[in-house]
Amino acid sequence: MRNKRYLAAGPALLPHELLMRAAMLLLLLTLLSFWMVCGMLARYTSSGGASDGARIALPGTAVAYEHQAVYQNGVYTLDTTAPPVMENRYETVVPGMTIPKDSYILIDGSQEVDCRLYLEVCESTAGWFSYVINTDQWKYQSAMTGSHGGKVYLYNPRIAPNEVMEVHQIFTDQMITVRETLRSKTTPTLPSGAASIKLYATLVQAD
Amino acid sequence: MKQHRLLSVIKKHSFFFAAVLLLMLSAASCLLIAKYVSSSNTMTGVYVPAPYHAVTVLSEQGTDEDSRLYLTNVRVQSGDQGYPVYVRVTLAVQWVDEQGRIYGQQPISGVDYTLSYNENDWSLYPNDGFYYYRTALPSGGTTAPLITSAQKLKQIKDPPESGYRLKAEVACETIQAVGTTHPGNIAAVVDAWNHHP
What we know:
The complex is a heterodimer. Chain A is an alpha+beta fold. Helices cover 14% and strands 36% of the residues of chain A. Chain A folds into two domains: 2-40; 62-205. Chain A has two helices and 15 strands. In chain A, the strands form five sheets. Chain A has a four-stranded antiparallel β-sheet with strand order 11-12-9-15, with no helix packed on it. Chain A has a three-stranded antiparallel β-sheet with strand order 3-8-13, with no helix packed on it. A three-stranded antiparallel β-sheet of chain A has the order 7-14-10, with no helix packed on it. The termini of chain A are far apart. In chain B, a hairpin with a 4-residue loop joins strand 6 and strand 7. Chains A and B meet through helix 2, strand 3, strand 6, strand 10 and strand 15 of A and helix 2, strand 1 and strand 9 of B.
């Protein structure tokens, strides 16, 4: 009986159940697509002029640098005359040694919105170093863990749109200290391995 | 009737409705939390611990035509470990037999042997009896002689008993000339030896 009614209406119509399912599937797919792209629906900015347009605002770029370390006769210094670098290798690290670190972050001013600057500090081997992140500017975010597993600090204040700036004094007194427990000072040793401290700077849209 | 029909439809397709509801809720929350994030490069510092090498004592030692001991040109050479070290040395002079047993009575400087030290480059710290090299020794470097050829240790008297001979043994220690304690900021040499050369 049901089939006869459908045949009378014509072969173009689908059964009610199939229609419902098709509609549901379509809605599902639409929402899925919307969900996948909604992360891109950030703030829009518009430019003035005869032909107004709108585009997605840029978040800007933050780059971490420090000056090249120079070693001579048991002492590390920084070569401030040479261009800054993104990596320093310290091949002769001795217990109790003090190593100068003038790490800083350069924000290029391409951010078009208010941003927050986060710093993640990753230490590969715990207990080798002693240092303090400058608490005058950076607040430790104890509730956060960085994407690389390190400690996260938030810079205060906010970074304004188009502001070009350098954030210095990341390490208090611009130095780190090698702990005395690194190895024995008096027993001949051939220690193996190396440790690293990595800094990651991240700009996040503030609103 | 209509409500009844609607409810039955919902009941029939409950899975789809649940999925749609979930997606709508997560889409709403995504709108709330989606923000632009821009990450920078990595600023990396790599730290390699320096080794600590044993030192080498260099000297010229032998016996003269009377089978009496002499010791001269005593120097210390540090390992090539990349950083300077402080050096201290002490000399033990004893009568020993062939089995290495030590005679009860110690030889006396000026009586059993002559000896003087190069005090231009080395200083005696009376509290511990060590001679300290006055400056830090560069990595792989060699000190000036503690005992020069002009000052050499020379046995001048025969052993108190047969079977014994005079033996001079140089003991040397080094400590890194860089680094301090934390806290306290005390130089490693002072922390270890309680004396700064």
